[in-house]
Specification:
The complex is a heterodimer.
Chain A lengths: L2 H27 L15 H7 L6 H15 L6 H22 L17 H13 L5 E5 L5 H13 L4 E4 L1 H8 L10 E5 L5 H14 L8 H11 L2 E5 L5 H12 L4 E3 L14 E3 L6 H8 L29 E6 L5 E7 L9 E5 L10 E3 L1 E8 L8 H13 L4 E6 L2 E7 H5 L4 H15 L6 E7 L2 H25 L7 E5 L11 E3 L12 H10 L7 E3 L3 E3 L4 E2 H10 L25 E6 L4 E6 L12 H7 L9 E4 L19 E3 L2 H19 L17 H11 L11
Parallel strand pairs in A: 1-2, 1-4, 2-3, 4-5, 5-6, 7-10, 8-11, 9-14, 21-23
Antiparallel strand pairs in A: 7-13, 11-14, 12-13, 15-16, 15-17, 18-19, 20-21, 20-22
Helix pairs in contact in A: 1-3, 1-4, 1-10, 2-8, 3-4, 4-8, 4-10, 5-8, 12-14
Chain B lengths: L8 H17 L5 H8 L4 H5 L2 E2 L7 E2 L13 H32 L12 H10 L9 H17 L13 H9 L7 H11 L8 H31 L5 E5 L9 E6 L3 H11 L2 H9 L5 E6 H11 L3 E3 L4 H6 L5 E4 L8 H6 L4 E4 L10 E2 L7 H15 L15 E5 L3 H9 L13 H9 L4 E5 L11 H12 L2 E6 H10 L12 H10 L4 E5 L4 H15 L8 E5 L5 H12 L4 E3 L9 H10 L1 H4 L3 E3 L3 H19 L2
Classes of the chains: A alpha/beta, B alpha/beta.
Chain lengths: 712, 630
């Protein structure tokens, strides 16, 4: 017996049942008797949605059964025929159910619900649209035990789903005294399998009411339910042919069926449609994944508050319960992309002693690994998530976090500890935030919090550092030439309305916070968001980095304020600045070079201006040739004012900044010009704060800028 | 639902007719005219009964003259011709594979060619028992390349890749003594067997035909595919466009044509070079458009999304647009007609391989060692030629379709992973596909391959067969010119799901694929063999039991016969729309259509009526289902 045979068989059985019900009613009430379901304008809703015809008398019902419904019950071995037969099965079931309501009868008594009124469906509309009700499970038959029945229903209910129950499961919930009803989102539809028609009725009326689907337009009706109604079926063993017939209808409308009937359905599984899961405890996650239901994590399960108000909170040594310090012992934080099968959603694992096993005020190792899986997940997003950890952990009341990668420091305050804050809560926070903010790409997420010092050492060196190295290598291979597109960033247009950053692999956003990969991730996570794709197909000038497409984009995103922008020049159409740049670079005319000052530098520069004075020269989205705001990492870029000769032009930087960028800058200078220890030739405030002394120093060092063409 | 519409063959033909008007204006010849001159074809040739392998003849067999001068009967002659045809095809494909091995051997970290898919290289090396640990990837590439080259001439043993086949298939090959040895040996043995005074026993000749086919499909072609992936990246789904409308009137148009991606990849590389784009602008063009014809087009479409201008019988149309600055060719399926035709326009006809040298072409010898400069020179030459265009002759039919291409076996498995459930399924297998077939959601699959042939109204067979198959929930994997026909029509557009039966439509929606999957060039039919092998392993069925058939409705080349032989010998029933010159011998004909089924569990069906051909395939698929009890 094939799956198709069973579906056909079930549909015939349902049809025969409907014929019998209608015949009995006819005998009792006659062909002219009125037929209706309570408080609906769509009677009979399923039949009306599918065919576009309303049925009002028993005679019409009989004609429909023998006409349109019978016509749908063809038996060719094609899925089309199985779908049609499945839908016909639902229509036949609806007729059987309708017969129960003949002559004003009230076939369903509390706690059973049966038919839903239009008003109930309209009430479900908003939460369904907003995702507040993420999914609609339809549970059929009795679970292996009452406890399991309750556990499954509870698990769906806790996620906000609207749970509907058909058949044996209802008895189990009643037996357990489970609180059910429309308002608690658990409804008992009826004892017969035919009561499933009332759930179909909800889905199809939703399509008519909210989707504006024309009744009778079956292809678009199916498209609507497939794409927008996140219903699915859990059918407990044994699954009879009638249920298989109904299941065919469910699948036709896009609702997958998950069953534990490993005997009668053996070998009949169909990807994303009919899934055999022997372990009923896993029905929930299996179903959620099968129907791509996105569950919202509404609250974070931690004993202290979580809010951005706590982001700047500082935990002093005296208030500190315990500290994890990456500068002394092995610590790290890491996001890893995994296969879906390797991740158990919301699993939080603590490896090593918990916080209450540490002495007050002591220093320890910690590592936390957030493992994520998702169809649209890319390993390029890992660092983007990781950079968010800082903000996430800081938002916990009584927890302080600084640093990144394997140079982190986390302090947990005494008050938080006393409120019950433990290691697993770090996992809870990371889980909830990652799942919520990145639900576009993360389907499943689990967190490992490691406090075992030996494990931390091992994982830091064998897992974390190699991962960081691999990412750095990837970053190094990313050049402006090697990528197909750049990105715009208009995050700061709120206060600088005409500024547009063009983010390229070798030129990060001038705030220093948005790298090309960040922009790419932002774009993919929020396609209408602040970062948009900019093509780079039509080069105007390779030297200055001017593109027709980039200009068009800049013009569009600056609302016409800017027309031309070069990526690599400080003199010709330089990129604008918003005001939040990390560094500013300006021409130093005596030496033919440029000086750079960073935001933190409070002293004087050889241009006779401080950072704030320099900053006031540019910013506000205005082009100022000779001045340019930029991120710190841009300094070592091979594209740094490439049009004017590149980093060779740098003659002065504050000492601290110079030390920060030295390693990478020297590397670039060596590669570009063969100069060793280039930073030794660059002046700083300890050498000169005026142009004359600087020039003397540069001459003495033989700085290459002196021999270059004038910039102006 | 949506405004998606297929492009019809009538629309193709109207565009061609308009182009031929331009051709008439400039006095150009065309295949349409030459077909007329060549019709009717020689009946002896069509039946395969003419023998000219020695100078006592030529002999041709008729009822009155049933034997040649040497005494060979019609079955021996037809069988020999068939084997020679096969050997020609196997030699061609495999030599292409050999070139790719050479290119792999030329890779260097700073060279023209690099290893783009090191993981695949390591996978193959491990499969071949080559130590990979601690080895520089380029050292490994060179070692694997040498091992690959040894497959052509090794004195002992069988083709290494045979081990990829299911155990049962390997046993059949052993039992029937058709497991291929060194590639060159099989080709040489074939030519030896067909020499005057050697084999004339049909059974022996057909057996060797299968073996020679196998050395192509599981040897030379497979290496061509696998190492191309190592060199240029394993294809993954990518969007592109197809049909003549992809050429851009304002741009310098360079058309790549042929089969070997080593050339076309390099041309694409340089056409993207800002220096070249700037140069193109300096001569008044807006940019450079590369498009492709034939299988080299499939190669660059799969890996770079380079648009496909057309398939085999559209190669002259490309020049007839008057907007083609250069048609750059490597090897195989190139009309010598392009030489004289290009002279009617400003088009440069650039031949690049010593294998394919033609009159009226500019020969710019292309080698792996000098690939970069060669490609640059070619692109520059095309740009320089832009100014010679005659605007009054320019007409590009405004006709193209979107296509999603790039379904290597790896990509197919990756796509299938997206419909698995992580709580019950494993990933990285073909099992979701098997489940769809088992349940009846999909009835089966057809591997559509092959060329165009004027004996069939071009593209009609490909497109009509595909339309009916997908409407019957039969998924299609396509390669070569068949794939391009599908792309031109719009069957590789994901919107084509609405033309499918409910089952295939649902599969397309859930997996986000078009109903016709582009698996690559004709060499890439080896991918289909790997897919069939993996499906067999994942399902527990033998390849011959899987509801899959092969089909080449418009085939024309020797390569196609070699392909047919390895597809059949792998256990896949194969349906042809053109007779392979064997109808003159009942014995050979019977062997191919029936007899070989006893050897390899599959055989040929030849049916020139397209409607009957498609029904025969659907019936065969349903028969296989019934036999499996699904």
């Amino acid at each position: 017996m094939t799956l198709f045979d069973r579906a056909f068989g079930g549909s015939s059985e349902m049809y025969a049942w409907a014929e019998k019900s209608v015949a009995e009613a006819l005998e009792k009430y006659g062909a002219d008797a009125a037929v209706s379901l309570p408080s609906t304008a769509y009677s009979l809703p399923c039949y009306y949605a599918v065919t576009g015809e309303k049925l009002t008398t028993l005679g019409e019902v009989k004609a429909a059964l023998e006409g349109k419904i019978k016509e749908m019950m063809t038996r060719k071995e094609r899925l089309h025929n199985v779908f049609q037969a499945g839908i016909a099965t639902a229509l036949a079931a609806e007729i059987i159910e309708t017969m129960k309501y003949m002559d004003g009868a009230q076939p369903y008594e509390e706690p059973y619900v049966g038919h839903f009124t239009d008003a109930m469906i309209r009430e479900l509309g908003v939460p369904l649209v907003t995702g507040d009700i993420p999914g609609v499970p339809v549970i059929i038959n009795a679970a292996p035990s009452v406890e399991e029945a309750v556990a499954l229903v509870k698990s769906y209910q806790a996620q906000g789903n609207f749970v509907t129950c058909v058949g044996g499961i209802c008895d189990q919930l009643i037996e357990a005294g489970y609180n059910t009803g429309f308002n608690v989102r658990v409804t008992l539809m009826g004892k017969d399998i035919t009561s499933a028609a009332h759930v179909v009725s909800i889905a199809l009326r939703a399509a008519l009411i909210f989707g504006n689907i024309t009744p009778g337009d079956l292809p678009n009706l199916m498209k609507y339910t497939f794409e927008r109604v996140f219903a699915f079926v859990n059918a407990f063993a044994p699954v009879d042919d009638l249920t298989v017939g109904c299941g065919a209808g469910a699948i036709a409308f896009g609702f997958p069926v998950i069953s534990n009937d490993m005997e009668s359905l053996k070998g009949m599984n169909v990807p994303k449609s009919l899934i055999l899961q022997p372990d009923t405890e896993k029905f929930n996650p299996t179903s959620i994944e099968a129907r791509d239901v996105k569950i919202k994590v509404t609250d974070i399960d931690i004993p202290v508050a979580f809010a951005s108000a706590f982001e700047g909170e500082i935990i002093r040594r005296g208030d500190m319960q315990v500290e994890f310090d990456g500068s002394r012992v092995d610590c790290f934080e890491l996001v890893q992309t995994k296969e879906a099968s390797e991740v158990e959603d919301h699993k939080i694992e603590v490896i090593g002693p918990d916080l209450d096993e540490f002495e007050v005020g002591t220093k320890h190792s910690i590592g936390y690994i957030v493992e994520v899986a998702g169809r649209n997940m890319q390993s390029d997003f890992e660092p983007v998530f990781e950079r968010k950890f800082h903000s996430y952990l800081n938002c916990i009341e009584g927890v302080m976090h600084t640093g990144q990668r394997d140079m982190i420091r986390v302090r947990v305050g005494k008050a938080a500890f006393e409120a019950g804050f433990r290691a697993k809560h770090i996992g809870e926070v990371l889980y909830a935030k990652i799942k919520n903010e990145f639900d576009a790409v993360v389907d499943k997420c689990q967190v490992k919090v490691i406090t075992d010092p030996e494990k931390c050492t091992e994982l830091r060196h064998n897992l974390a550092i190699p991962s960081f190295d691999k990412r750095d290598d990837r970053l190094r291979t990313l050049t402006d030439e090697s990528v197909e597109v750049y990105y715009s960033c208009i995050l700061c247009q709120a206060f600088s309305p005409s500024h547009v950053c063009v983010v390229t692999p070798e030129r990060l956003g001038l705030c220093g916070a948005v790298s090309w990969l960040d922009a790419k991730a932002t774009n993919e996570l929020d396609p209408q968001g602040p970062c948009q794709v900019i093509t780079k197909e039509r080069v105007i000038d390779e030297r200055t980095g001017e593109y027709e497409d980039v200009n068009e984009a800049v013009k569009m995103y600056s609302q016409g304020a800017l027309e031309n922008v070069s990526l690599y020049s400080i003199m010709e159409n330089p990129m604008t600045s918003c005001g939040c740049f990390e560094c500013i670079c300006g021409i130093e005319p005596f030496s033919n070079g440029v000086i750079i000052a960073n935001r933190e530098y409070a002293g004087m520069t050889p241009l006779g201006m401080t950072f704030p004075e320099l900053a006031s020269m540019t910013g506000g989205g205005v082009q100022t040739p000779g001045f340019m705001g930029h991120g710190k990492h841009f300094i070592a870029s091979k594209k740094f004012m490439k049009a004017e000769g590149g980093i060779e032009r740098i003659v002065w930087m504050p000492k601290e900044l110079k030390e920060t960028v030295a390693e990478r800058l020297n590397e670039s200078a060596k590669e570009l010009y063969g100069i060793e220890n280039f930073t030794d030739m660059i002046g700083d405030e300890t050498i000169a704060e005026d142009p004359e002394t600087l020039l003397e120093f540069l001459t003495e060092k033989g700085h290459p800028a002196l021999g270059m063409d004038p910039m102006m | 639902m949506g405004d998606f519409k297929l492009t019809t063959v009538e629309e193709f033909e109207a565009a061609t007719a308009r182009l031929l008007e331009t051709g008439a204006k400039v006095g150009a010849d065309s295949w349409q005219l030459r077909v007329k001159n060549q019709t009717p074809h020689c009946k002896f040739g069509e039946q395969g009964v003419c023998c000219r392998i020695c100078s006592m003849g030529p002999c041709r067999i008729t009822p009155k003259a049933p034997r040649g001068i040497c005494g060979c009967d019609v079955h021996g002659i037809v069988g020999r011709n068939y084997l020679k045809f096969t050997a020609g095809g196997a030699a061609t494909h495999s030599d292409h594979g050999r070139e790719i091995c050479h290119t792999l051997h030329c890779t260097a970290p700073d060279g023209n060619y690099k290893v783009k898919d090191p993981e695949k290289l390591i996978r193959i090396a491990k499969e071949w028992g080559i130590e990979t640990e601690g080895k520089d990837i380029y050292d490994l590439a060179h070692e694997v390349a040498v091992e690959g080259l040894m497959e052509y001439g090794k004195p002992f043993g069988h083709q290494r890749f045979l081990k990829r086949a299911p155990q049962h298939t390997q046993e059949l090959w052993e039992r029937e003594e058709i497991a291929p040895r060194a590639i060159d040996r099989e080709v040489a043995s074939s030519l030896h067997m067909t020499h005057m005074g050697c084999s004339s026993k049909p059974e022996a000749l057909i057996r060797q035909s299968l073996r020679t086919g196998l050395c192509d499909g599981w040897g030379g072609s497979m290496m061509g595919t696998e190492f191309s992936d190592v060199l240029f990246g394993t294809p993954k789904p990518i969007d592109t466009e197809a049909n003549l409308g992809v050429m851009v009137a304002e741009n310098v148009n360079i058309v790549v044509h042929g089969h070997d991606p080593s050339l076309s990849e390099m041309i694409c590389e340089y056409a993207d070079d800002p220096e070249m784009i700037a140069y193109a602008k300096s001569v008044g063009a807006k940019g450079i458009t590369i498009s492709g014809v034939c299988c080299t087009s499939n190669e660059v479409a799969m890996r770079r999304g380079i648009p496909m201008a057309g398939n085999f019988l559209q190669q002259e149309n490309v020049v007839l647009t008057g907007a083609c600055e250069a048609i750059v060719v490597d090897v195989q399926c190139i009309f010598p007609a392009l030489g004289p035709l290009s002279k009617c326009f400003h088009t440069k006809f650039v031949t690049t391989s010593k294998i394919a040298q033609m009159p009226d072409s500019e020969f710019m010898h292309f080698t792996a060692e000098t690939a970069g400069e060669n490609a640059k020179a070619i692109v520059k030459m095309a740009i320089d030629n832009f100014k010679n265009r005659k605007p009054e002759l320019v007409y590009i039919p405004d006709m193209k379709q979107k296509a999603t291409v790039g379904y290597s076996v790896e990509a197919i498995k990756k796509t299938l992973d997206t419909v698995t459930n992580s709580y019950v399924d494993e990933t990285g297998t073909t099992k979701p596909l098997v489940e769809c077939v088992k349940s009846g959601v999909l009835r089966g699959a057809v591997a559509m391959v092959g060329c165009n042939n004027p004996k069939i109204r071009p593209d009609v067979a490909h497109i009509e067969l595909m339309k009916k198959l997908i409407a019957n929930d039969i998924i299609i994997i396509a390669s070569g010119c068949s794939a391009q026909a599908a792309a031109k029509a719009g069957l590789m557009n994901k919107d084509a799901k609405d033309l499918c039966g409910a089952g295939l439509k649902r599969v397309c929606e859930l997996a986000d694929i078009p109903p016709v999957l582009h698996m690559g060039s004709c060499v890439d039919i080896s991918r289909m063999m790997i897919l069939a092998a993996d499906i067999a392993k994942d399902s527990g069925w033998n390849i011959s039991q899987v509801p899959v058939v092969g089909c080449a409705p418009e085939w024309m080349s020797e390569k196609a016969v070699s392909i047919g032989n390895y597809v059949v010998a792998t256990g896949i029933d194969t349906f042809l729309g053109v007779d392979p010159y064997v109808c003159g011998s009942t014995e050979v004909d019977n062997l191919l259509k029936h007899g070989i089924k006893d050897w390899v569990e599959a055989s040929y069906t030849v049916e020139k009526d397209i409607d009957k051909l498609v029904d025969a395939m659907i019936d065969r698929i349903e028969e296989k289902r019934t036999a499996l009890g699904i």
